[in-house]
Amino acid sequence: xxxxxxxxxxxxxxxxxxxxxxxxxxxxxxxxxxxxxxxxxxxxxxxxxxxxxxxxxxxxxxxxxxxxxxxxxxxxxxxxxxxxxxxxxxxxxxxxxxxxxxxxxxxx
Length: 108
Fold this sequence. Notes:
Elements: H1 2-9, H2 14-39, H3 47-66, H4 72-87
Helix pairs in contact: 2-3, 3-4
């Protein structure tokens, strides 16, 4: 009930609010797919589907982290493993802020 009141008060219908959220999700998926394509995924990897999968994985990991059901280093390892599958590597991509071979927490 509150959501409908808030949307109505802002001059938005539930439909337009849902469409705005869908547009942002589509833009993010397209951006990520473009980045994956530029990075050169492994043979047979569809960047659009891989982008959708990565976004779903990150959403799920975020929920697990917030509910403290997953440790930070486990979430990073899960993401690294998915990237390794997408790029056909053993360890996934090594971000610039992580030393090669470093596992778990990312130093700042």
